[in-house]
Amino acid sequence: MGSKKRDSSRVTLSDVARLAKVSAITVSRCIRNPERVSEDTRVRILRAIDDLGYVPDMAASALASKRSNVVGLVIPSLTNSVFTDVLKGVYDAIEETRLTVQIGNSRYSPSKEENLIRTFLQQRPAGLIVAGVNHTEAGRKMLEASSCPVVQIMDVTDKPVDRLVGFSHFEGAKAAVRHLHDMGYRRPGILTARMDPRSRVRLAGFTEEAQQLGIFEPARVVSTPLHSSVGLGAQLFSDLLAQAPDTDSLFCNNDDLATGALFEAARRNIRVPEALGVCGYNDLDISAEVNPSLTTIATPRYEVGLQSVQMINAALDPEGEAAPPPVILGTKLVPRQSTRRRPMPSVGIHSGETT
Amino acid sequence: MGSKKRDSSRVTLSDVARLAKVSAITVSRCIRNPERVSEDTRVRILRAIDDLGYVPDMAASALASKRSNVVGLVIPSLTNSVFTDVLKGVYDAIEETRLTVQIGNSRYSPSKEENLIRTFLQQRPAGLIVAGVNHTEAGRKMLEASSCPVVQIMDVTDKPVDRLVGFSHFEGAKAAVRHLHDMGYRRPGILTARMDPRSRVRLAGFTEEAQQLGIFEPARVVSTPLHSSVGLGAQLFSDLLAQAPDTDSLFCNNDDLATGALFEAARRNIRVPEALGVCGYNDLDISAEVNPSLTTIATPRYEVGLQSVQMINAALDPEGEAAPPPVILGTKLVPRQSTRRRPMPSVGIHSGETT
DNA sequence: CTGTTAGCGCATTCAC
DNA sequence: GTGAATGCGCTAACAG
């Protein structure tokens, strides 16, 4: 097999201790709380560590302290770029710390999520970051009973388990509908797939706002439990056209669907934004590049990743206070060429300039 | 802080042992090598485990055995979908095992990669999966000296460190050029960015094949160290057109660049595939959806992820043999509408029907 | 096939 | 500010 070397006696705390002429426990302290050790022993110890190339053994540390340095991260997908952006934020932030990430992929399944939560919790993690605020009952109970900090991300709720950093999908969807209306569109449809909790909330936001504006029409709602993709966006748009041909605009639950709809519109020679306004959700990289460029709701995914780790860190800090209030980040409408720059004069209502 | 509960005396091996009326070590064995324990003690032990809800303590296990169950995975990006596909394969495969993944993001930096290799190796990982075959000298030495199985992925080489599962970028690029030639294009350019080792190899493949076909033209090579993106593809295509306006086809180092080039061609009313053939690399989801759909070289990224874990597993198996030969997976040209279906009759410009 | 003994490397608790 | 003793939960190496 692959083994090539036997374990060359590892450098341990006591090796360092001997060289620095102190006891092992002092070295241990010096590493974890440098300020609790006198100036010059600290210097000696650090030198010894450096000379010997000492590296702490995490397993031993975890065993003795009953606390690992592992942060569990539970997300529903490893390929959806919404979550890979979160991932990047998490990793960028975690590198500054002595923590380590372990990912669990729930595949959008609440029961898989529950299992992951259980598995992680059994490992005495330093903290847990979980996407969403909807869990199985058992899952939520475990999170609440957990002895480590828990951060829910990517959504908002009145009753977070512990800490939370997310944004409102409801408000984002409403802003999208409002924008379509401001631009003069009066017959908006919605394309939505993979009906996970956050998609549902966006649909609810669409519905509420459209109703308030008096432009809601059930026949213009197209949804499917299938996973989102560009190809599916094209398909759903075709479906919508079949059942409500006079639709004049689209809120798509995400930019993949929107991109697909845009492509399908091009194939059908439907002019965007003149004959059809399109607004997506998330602001992926490609959204600025398609023809015409895609109006969308930008979501702070990377930022959520960063802040979730900072919250874990803050919670772990012995000076740490009680759990801070939830952090609700903003979403932002990014107007682009897939919606008009000005409302139509005819059915026209008023302004909506965004300089 | 976030703590809510004190550690409620954990269920340990000896608890299970007591209930099953055996010794702790037998329980330990039963968990790791069920077949080395007699039928009925095994049954008793498994029942006891179940009754008590016993969960092994990985930290203790790692400490005692000097071997963790962590597989280190070093990749250059967390957002590039080429690597998130690998990631998915790795996670799908690892779930079948008792192993666990830890990701290191090298950000395409060899020195960061070296640091990650060092850090991982210090944790006595069960195995290491590393993207690419190009490392710093120190990095390679560490890998060679490592006592755990190492799998290099996503590329090929004569001298793998240990195990390898990848595919040839050189051959993939050559196939692309050949296809463009077969379809009647005679003035191919190449767009390439983020000159990592694999991109360079693809460029070399392009160059060699084009030279052999007698259609190589240095002025049609456009490259930049910037990271690939759809927007950059548009930019590079514009640059190429400025320096070699008669270019009749494009091999793009990846599908992001190709997509950008396709978008830019649309903006300039350059007809694809009639006036311009385009071939990308990787076969991302979107490539089948753009207009016209993108001819590309499909790469087995998910499969590489899966197999890399299987290799680690095989190496860990005590029955395991010596390191198997490298596994070279195939890439596949996927002809789509961005190249003609038939070669041009002469040098003439027309046809390109796609039924 | 099963048990005994020993100790992995570190952190907790309490002395000093 | 520093140290000694003790054990975290498990597995290696033997013995039977």
Automatic annotation (TrEMBL), chains A, B:
Ranges in a coiled coil: none
GO molecular function terms attached to this record: DNA-binding transcription factor activity; transcription cis-regulatory region binding
InterPro entries according to UniProt: HTH_LacI, LacI/GalR-like_sensor, Lambda_DNA-bd_dom_sf, Peripla_BP_I
Matching Pfam families: LacI, Peripla_BP_3
UniProt keywords, alphabetically: DNA-binding, Transcription, Transcription regulation
Stored Gene3D superfamilies: 3.40.50.2300, lambda repressor-like DNA-binding domains
Magnesium recorded as keyword: no
Entry-linked PROSITE patterns: HTH_LACI_2
Region of interest (Disordered), residue spans: 336-355
Location of the HTH lacI-type domain: 11-65
PANTHER family linked to this entry: HTH-TYPE TRANSCRIPTIONAL REGULATOR GNTR, LACI-RELATED TRANSCRIPTIONAL REPRESSOR
Protein name per the record: LacI family transcriptional regulator
